[in-house]
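Dear Dr. H.,

I hope your travels went smoothly. While you were away I took the liberty of generating a structure for the chain from your last submission, since the lab meeting agenda had it listed for discussion. I wanted you to have the full record in hand beforehand rather than looking at slides cold. The sequence, exactly as received, is reproduced here:
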Amino acid sequence: MRGSMRHPTGRWGAVVVALGAVLLLSACGAAAARPGRRTAASGTVSFAQPVASVPNYIFPMTPAADFTGQNVLELQYLLWRPLYWFGNHGRPVFDEQLSLALPPVYSNGGRTVTIRLKSYRWSDGLPVTTRDVRFWMNLLLANKTEWGAYVPGGFADDIVRIDYLSPTEFRITLNAAYNHDWLLYNELAQIIPVPQQTWDRTSLSGPVGNYDTTVHGAHAVWAFLNHQSNTLPTWDTSPLWRVVDGPWRLQPGTGFNPSTGFVTLVPNPSYSGPVKPTIARVEEVPFSSETAEFDALRAGTVTYGYLPIEDLSQRSYLTAHGYQFEPWTNYGMSFIAINFTNPHTGPIFKQLYVRQAMEHLINQPQWDRTILKGYGWPTYGPIPTHPANPFADAYEHDPVYPYSVKAATALLSQHGWRVARSGTDTCISPGTAARDCGAGIARGAALDLHLLYSSGVLLVAEEVQALKSAFSEAGINLLLQSAPTNTVFADYATCNKATGAGCSWDLIDFFSGGISTIYYPDYLPTSGENFGTGGGFNTGGYSSPTADRLIRATHVAPGLGPLFQDQNYLAQQLPVLWTPAAPQAFSEISDHLHGAVPQDPYGFLYPEQWRLTG
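The corresponding predicted structure, in token form, is as follows:
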């Protein structure tokens, strides 16, 4: 992630721009008015959350287990703005206008970065200053391993010192000269000024102080804020979360329903940014099933929803009844995660030939034709080819391991496995010689592999069944288990990368057929967070000295050459199993709602830019 990977956020690949707790909401109670039906009293826009995907963490220094699009993109960034903003009118690029600071100025051979803040104010009337930046940085530096975006040797570790020169200007001295794009897109973009005057405390009843200025105090403040963030019933009443600098805030007292995940946002009247909200209220509405969400669309009770892929035949009906069809393409990649740390199956997954055999059994063109209805595109490496961007080279457009049962079975039989076409392969030649099964694999070991996948979306169920069938052709037995998306993501993200503790899974499919991860808050698609040793989202435990060296080069060397080398190596090495990608959602947007298109490639919402008519 920061080297690239983010949270999940796909709406029909299992995740739908909104992961979270279950919701018990029927279509008839899903939202208020008909799409775009605006009255002077309300002006409400209802936005459909994906199935079983709702916010569950509000403090923007988010742990890995909670680093989802629903928490960050659909909640936190609407309330608290990062220092630099990315995503500009549907393009995956820097947006200076929406950033809280002017572009960075480099000196000292590129080792020093000076940043000047623009004039923004908190909702309590106080200015956003470098003290708020310092508060964020103090908490981060003291608690970096608790932060989902942390990569050892990356942001935080590369800072030598920070000088706060004035209330509006600060200077960062780094331990080396870095690629300027990487610094802006993947390092400075992670700074989020937060309200020190309200949050610098260790209890709700205690005074605000300068606790963050010591390591011990910063630990205590982080622990307090983390606890408050996990206390969901208090989100819309706590004095902490009502102080914001973004265009929106939770509606006091009724802004969040912890039992369903229903979110109600109202404008921040003190917002200092360039685009002021004109909608009186935005409701992020949870649904218990895609059928319920589709029924709400047909009933006209959702302003901004999505069409499940199995209901694409209803597109013309919705168009005739006042909706605009807009596929939402995210800048991310799609894959099935591999657990290299599992004490039983990890030694099997560490054999490249096994990963190659499994990749040969993923028929990406067929998945696109039959399951994704022709709306998908292949994933052959870590850099997305959609939307169009300058970061993916030609190698990413062609399969390294095209579909072939023959190639898969040959790889296994040539490396010591008895291939059973009607059963499960077993190792008959243990050892580490060229034609043996490999280190740590015992005689009789079987290719019985557990696949955990997100429940509630027909598309995902179809894909894992197709995968199980294809794997069986080469004697690999997939044992399928489903769970709500938040549960699946938490199981993935809470693994101990070093010891494997808590990592009982073998393979995890979050959102195959959608987007597994989006590049944020590392917007330049380097691979450190996802696939670097110890990376914040590398909880499968993949580790390669060659990959680490290539990733490091993308951080320090100028130009795109190192990025191309990194992506090509990972395409070959398969730290995950690449699967076809598709739009995050097939959005259906009321004809009365304007300003929602183009949709953001990182999955951000811009309700302050929306207008209702009619």
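Two observations you may find useful: The domain at 27-79+246-329+584-612 is CATH 3.40.190.10 (D-Maltodextrin-Binding Protein; domain 2). The two ends are 42 Å apart (CA to CA).

With kind regards,
E. W.
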